[in-house]
Amino acid sequence: MRTDGDSWDINTSVGSTALFVAAARALGGRAADAPAQDPFAELFVRAAGGEWADLLDDRVPDHPLLTPEFGIQFQQHQVARTRYFDDYLYAAAAAGIRQVVILAAGLDARAYRLPWPDGTVVYELDRPQVLEFKCETLAQAGRQPSAERHEVPVDLREDWPKALCDSGFDPALSTAWLVEGLLIYLSPAAQDQLFDAVVSLSAPGSRVAIEQMDPLPAEAAASMAERGDAGSDWVRLIYNDPHSEVTEWFTDRGWTGERVYLNDYIRDLGHTPAAEQSLISLVTVVRP
Q1: Which of 31, 107, 152, 208 could form a cystine bridge with 177, CB 3.0-4.6 A?
Q2: Quick one: how far is CA 35 from the chain centroid?
């Protein structure tokens, strides 16, 4: 189970979820009508080697990411949220925002993948081991970022605002924040503390895009924990407690916000959700 001071790298605990997610993006993006493609995801998965690379070469037919009851749904989830956050960043750039902060960046390669306007600076925050793996993989592949990229090696449970500002971040400039796949790994108190920091660093015109998840029903969480599969590993990493609802939290502080459940968003994209229900929602909030 999670503890407040636990640690990890790219192959363990929360860090390993970055590879799991990258594999899902790589697999889900292969469909001709996929809402988003991330060719960098395959670079990371192959760099990890072993079973991860075998998965992409169809040599692990029983892998959890290939199962209809979980894997196909999870692939769709990852590709859909990639599209949502890509579009969010395109809109931020079109609005003139040139400062982007990706919290718990993991294996996000948007600093390389998206066509950023001149003058855009992207700050990526994560544990040093995760950022090192990403940087080394992309350097070996000869890839260069399309924006000015600043790595901020820090644990988000530490004084990350200071580390961010020390890396060149300017709180006087409007910022596009990205909080993807993070909140479920934070305690309720840590989530609110993170939001307080974001608000304190956000100039007028800033915006935040966030993925949140409603708590799993207690019986479902207990059942997953006992199964002994990828689901049981994952449920032990999350904080399955009620968190502040993101849209309400920010609107109570004067921001405006919009929230859409993942399945509704998938339908908006013209696709049929693979899962009957989803606890995931996607939120964008803007500071006037």
Answers
A1: 208
A2: 17
Beta-bridge mates of residue 281: 212, 261
CA distances from residue 108 to 10, 39, 74 in whole angstroms, order as listed = 13, 11, 17
DSSP string, 98-167: -EEEEET-TT--HHHHS-PPTT-EEEEEE-HHHHHHHHHHHHHTT---SSEEEEEE--TTS-HHHHHHHT
Using a 10 angstrom Cβ sphere, with 0-12 exposed, 13-18 middle and 19 or more buried, the burial of residue 138 is buried
In 3D space, the residue among 131, 132, 241 whose CA is nearest the CA of residue 184 turns out to be 241
3-class state of residue 53 by DSSP? helix
The DSSP 8-state label assigned to residue 8 in this structure reads -
Residues whose CB falls within 8 Å of the CB of residue 108, separated by 6 or more in sequence, listed in order: 102, 124, 178, 180
| Contact (Cβ atoms closer than 8 angstroms) between residue 246 and residue 277 | no
What per-residue confidence (pLDDT) applies to 236?
Answer: 80
User: Would you say residue 261 has pLDDT above 70?
Assistant: yes
At position 155, the amino acid (one-letter code) is D
Q: What is the pLDDT of residues 212-227, one digit of tens each?
A: 999 988 777 677 767 6
H helical segments located in the chain: 13-28, 39-48, 50-56, 71-94, 110-113, 128-140, 160-166, 188-200, 218-226, 230-235, 246-251, 262-268
Q: How many other β-carbons are positioned within 10 Å of the β-carbon of residue 228?
A: 8
**Where is pLDDT greater, at 70 or 203?**
203
Q: What is the pTM of this model?
A: 0.92
- The helix (H) or strand (E) run that includes residue 211 is strand 207-213
State how beta strands 121-126 and 207-213 pair. unpaired
Does the pLDDT of residue 278 top 60, yes or no?
A: yes
